Each structure stands twice: as C-alpha cells, then as structure tokens.
User: What shape does this take?
Amino acid sequence: MVPAISGSAPLFAALGDRTRLQLVSRLCSGGPSSLANLSAGLPITRQAITKHLRAMERSGLVHSRRKGREMIWRLERRRLREARRYLEIVSAQWDSALARLRDFVED
Amino acid sequence: MVPAISGSAPLFAALGDRTRLQLVSRLCSGGPSSLANLSAGLPITRQAITKHLRAMERSGLVHSRRKGREMIWRLERRRLREARRYLEIVSAQWDSALARLRDFVED
DNA sequence: GCGAAATGCAACCAGAAAGTTGCCTAATCG
DNA sequence: CGATTAGGCAACTTTCTGGTTGCATTTCGC
Assistant: This one.
C-alpha cells in the first residue's frame, strides 16, 4: 500500500551522499548555478562534481542546461516533492491506529 | 541554511535501496516483525536481509530487540520524521520568493 | 533430550561508486 | 588572434555494497 517503491529508491539514493546533499543545499539556497560555481569551495575535483550531478540528473532530482560555455544546474522541485510525499505517507500510515494496534499485538 | 547535512545523508542512503524500501513498507504496514517473517517472500537470502536491517539500524531508521530465539525489528518513527522534515525545509526554502528571484536573475 | 526453527558469524565475490589524473574541445575576452 | 576559462571524455584505483555459501549457536516444541 505504501506507494511507488520502485521509483522512490533511486531518488533517496541520490540524496544519500554527503557531497550530493551539499550540492542540493547550494542549489536550493542559491538557485541555479554553473558547474564551476558549484565545485568552487568543495574539496573534490570538478569531474567528481560532474559525476554527482549527472547521477542526480538520472534520478530526476536535478536538471542541466547549456548556456554558452557553462553548464547551468537547477533543482527539480517536482521530484523533491515526490520524496517528501513518500515519507509523509509512510509516516502517516505508521501513525495510524492500526499500526499501533499491531505493534501491541506482535510485541 | 539547510540543516543537518552531515546527519541526513546516511539516513537517505538507508532509504536508497529497493529491498530496504520494501522492508520499510512491510514494517510500516505490518508493524514490528521477526527476521524470518520479513525475509519470507523476498527473493534474497535471510543473511542479506539481516545486513540490510543492520545497515538501517546503524542509521537509526530501525530498531531490533531479541525475543526468545527470534529477532524483532521495528521502524523508528523519530528518524523517519527527521528525514521528512529535512525535505520539507529544503522544499520550503526552494519555494521561497528569494529562491525564485535568484532563479530568474541567474537564468 | 532431540530435532527443527531462528538466527549469528565469517569468508568470499562481482559489480557499482567515489574519486583521481591526463588530455581534448569549445566559448569568451583582451 | 591568443590566452584563459568552462567543461567533456576516458582510463584507472580503491573502497563500499549487495549478495552468496557454509557452518555454528541458541531456543522451542514435543
């Protein structure tokens, strides 16, 4: 009954890395940004950042657009909402009286 | 601005696997359950399930308790709420007028 | 007490992932 | 035009991960 298991796993996987969460944070608070901009300050190479961004792109979490010689990346709000919704549903279900009853019974 | 990056990554990583999401689903809708019970029906070995559960336990997503000869696992609601909250904050921040402004400016 | 059930532990394996280095291409700005 | 800046591609290393098999241990039911 919990929804869309198959589709949600890659999305959470995309969030499940410290560096990628930092990128999400930057993209979130700073808006769309170029690769050079994103990799500035982070302790790893630009190529590694590219790999992370492409991985996130494959899971739909982020989107890229060429602009001249630079690559602009931005967060994909829709996908983020999906992840949030998944957790909301799981939480809600867990919070239900039925779950609590079974918890008690099987204890 | 976005909170608790360091702590959130392992949590999302724990959710970022199809099998583990299935376990979350089972634990969520069925309440606490034994290892044998959880591994029944899944196409992988019991040992693999154990590894997944222990991984989830390390990230605080799940909790185990011995009961006679069986091991009872249950979801940790608190941790699930944390993940949800993280996404809510990121989403909210992204949705803010400031983010949209920067989106426009840097476009 | 004995057999079956539920689990733990350790070694092992293949493939994915995170990161690097080296070099190449395409815009941009003096 | 020439130098610089932004980025792409490919090969390679190391470590992590998901999964396996084999065997030992504890506990339950009869």
About this structure: The first strand of chain A starts at residue 33 and ends at 34. The first helix of chain A runs from residue 5 to 15. Residues 34-36, 46-47, 50, 68-71 of chain A lie near DNA strand D (CB under 10 Å from a C1'). Strands of chain A lie at 33-34, 62-67, 70-75.
